[in-house]
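Reviewers asked in the last cycle whether our approach scales beyond single polypeptides. To address this, we selected a multi-component target totalling 716 residues and predicted its structure end to end. The input consisted of the following lines:
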Amino acid sequence: MALMATQALAQARTLDTVLERGRLVCGVNNGLPGFGYLDSDGRWTGFDIDYCRALAAAVLGDPEAVEFVPLTAAERFIALQTGEIDVLIRNATWTLTRDTDLGLNFAPTTFFDGQGFMVRKDLGVVDIEDLAGASICVTSGTTTELNLADTMRARGLPFTPVVFEEIDTVYRAYEQGRCDAVTSDKSQLAGRRAVMADPDAHVILDATISKEPLGPVVRHGDDQWFDIVSWVVYATFFAEEKGITSANVESFETADPEIERFLGRTGGMGAMLGLTDDWAVKVIKAVGNYGEIFDRNLGPLGLPRGLNRQWTDGGLLYAMPFR
Amino acid sequence: MMLSSDAFVQRKAFWRDTRFLAVLFQVLFLAVVILLAGAAYANMVRGLERLGLRLQLDFLSQEAGFGISEGIAYTPGDSYGRAFVVGVVNTLRVGALGIVLSTVVGVLVGIGRLSSNWLVRGLSSVYVEVFRNTPLLLQLIFWYSAVMLKMPGVRQSISVFDLVFINQRGVYIPRPVPTGAFALWVWLLIISVVMAAGLYVYRRRIQEREGRPGFAGLWALGLLAAGGALGWLAVPGSPLVLDVPILQGFNFRGGIQLSPEFAAMLTGLVLYTGAFIAEVVRGGIQSVPKGQREAALALGLRPAAAMYLVILPQALRIIIPPLTSQYLNLVKNSSLATAIGFPDMFNVGVTIMNQTGQSIPVFGLIMASYLSFSLITALIMNWYNRRVRLVER
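The resulting structure, written as structure tokens, was:
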């Protein structure tokens, strides 16, 4: 009996599982201001959290029908592989190994990031070369951990990695002086610096040592689910490109047939994804377009849009055609 | 009566025959176990297939690419296999040191709990109750976050005679480095050891023959110390020099560094397990009949001698089996190291799992390693247990 149940579960499509359950189970970060954290009211807030809500709005019609599962960097992929979560939206970097060996599929990148270093200002460090012999705090099971080793090795700089699993422990150890520097994605450094006791005592070095494309992740073997997650991301890009916002999405006046299709007034594109025709309207109504999501969550941290601008503005955000 | 009962047994149907039922239930139980294990295995294989993952160990020879903060020689360019070995050695290091130190703490406190001195007894009781009744994870985080990380910064290190330095990056102690004269001195030392052993046997014989204290141990130790000291003076130059840690750049260089993670891990494990061992020792001692101690004292033995010569040897046979469990617990508990960033086998294993996605093979490796550590520990302790039992009359 148990055997048959697990077998059935294994073969079920993720979309059906989610619909049946009535809730989306989303793997998120629990300690990263701006991306995924519990705010002072006990509500999940952040850039990645909004993408969980967008997906729930598209699939279930309710942005609140999400169960958030906080995961450490080391736990996240195992949780996804084993089916504990439906989708992982937890600032995960897209790499070849993860895409293939780990059996994962990466939806379009929602945030183009790069790895940097944060040090205490009074240390007088300005460049990576100054970090020779330093103790550097880092989170285990991340690309960050590997990039750090690669960078220091390439430059022949000795260093001591001090590795923790919990993101909170990493920054506490750094703040208490266990490490001379802490390394991670620059957005994360900015997010964590904002909540330190004395943010002005720390400085993020200019040098960027890696490309960190962050985005939602799903399991291999369920193409329909992968398509849904991908197109929810494109919908937020597309809406910003066309000036559709959470305020005007329901009454948007247009003669553009592509926007008509996007809004589900023509074309029957929802059915192709296995969703209702107005899925994109629900997404934008719930969380807004990309610009709104960015400004709401990352604006307060003072993060510039940088590469995360529309392709029409010289950025890398490029929605595939809604056709 | 016998006849009628035999007749009854013969008439009984086979499904009511206890011998048959016993076999039947065992066969059924075995079948269920095999079926469940098979189902679990099939489910795992199917899950792996669905994800396109392979179940093999060849990833161990690939380049690891991540750094490990401490342990035997390792660079990020080494393989995952090597990284795992570094973790294994770190686990063994903290486990072996932990077993030795927690035994010392446990025996002292266990005896202290029975002391006639009110202060010693009180302190021992408070120690046992506090450390035995709070979770180990909590204690580890306390030792790490609230003690080790609260030490002064590198530049404000606590210095002990400019030889030992303590700061939040760890404890730095001088390292003895052998020089050219070291080999010669070791030979002289070996000769001293042989002579001391001879003297020990000789003094023991005197003690047994004449029935008065021979002080064999003291004589032997004295000879050994004299031999070592004379050898030190006799060889040209000093056989050992000290590599004293000095502040250079961000950190101290040279000497031996004990990282705060290691120090917190060892302290936590030793004090936690020590509290349990203290209770085991106290129970063992109290199980020796009171008359033994009274008889020993009546024979004129001093209380300390009565403890070492009469009570402890008898208590040992009660102490050893539960002590073995505590040793096994200590080794297994060392996997909590991951919470405070000490790169033990489990910590490194989880990182490997995460970087390669090979969770099942890595979990298998970790389980097999812990199992073999535990079995080896148990084997040694069981051997010792048998030896202690033989000594008993």
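The radius of gyration of chain A is 21 Å. We regard this as preliminary and will revisit it once experimental data from Aim 1 are available.
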